[in-house]
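Before going further, learn to read the protein records used in this course. Taken together, the tokens spell out the fold as the letters spell out the chain. A record is reproduced here so that you can trace the correspondence yourselves:

***
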Amino acid sequence: MADTNLFLSKSDYAYAELRGQILSGTLPAGTRLAQYDLAESLNMSITPLREAIRRLSSEGLVTVETHRDVRVSTMSSDEARQLFEVRLSLDPTAAELAAGRRTDEDIAVMRSAVARLLPVTRQWGEEALTAHRAFHQALYRASHNDVLIRLLDDLWDKSDRYRRLGLELPPGDEPRTRDLQEHHQLVDLIEDGRAAEAAQLMRDHITHSLTATAISALEDREGARTG
């Protein structure tokens, strides 16, 4: 077990642990969470675990059913599309603001992050996703808008399950290579202060993202179940 002293409370630790496992897919959608077993595995009583579950429920990551039965929330094309639509609005705003507000340090951090990027394919898996997130976080922070940064970080977390689904359905080498090139182009535009162009490129980038791929896959699956 990780050092719980890093967290404010046992409830915070349980929340962070379960949230991470849900978002990474370690606890897949539909998994039943046996609360007493979980509490024992986390070396805590049931009370802080239930507090953590209430927080996860408020975020829509778990569903509390009758008789305190708790399951990891299902994934749906509706939720994926809603997350996609909000990112399609906010990510370009972050790029536009970054182009007008970035510092030399911001550019250095983005350059370092973009140098570590890998094609987001099944071959590179988690390593590529981690590097991808680090780049986008660097770009968000260059906007110097704390509210926007928090919103986008939360959206990124909630999109992770869908992003991983998209990773299982690679569209081929060309789109992922284009995706990699767009990150480098975004840094160039932001460094040059070309705000409108940075916003438009980010909008195109999100349009062809893994979440967009996941929406189509989920719609196909849902259609097959109801057909």
Notes: Residues 170 and 203 are 21 Å apart (CA to CA). The two ends are 45 Å apart (CA to CA). The first strand starts at residue 32 and ends at 33.
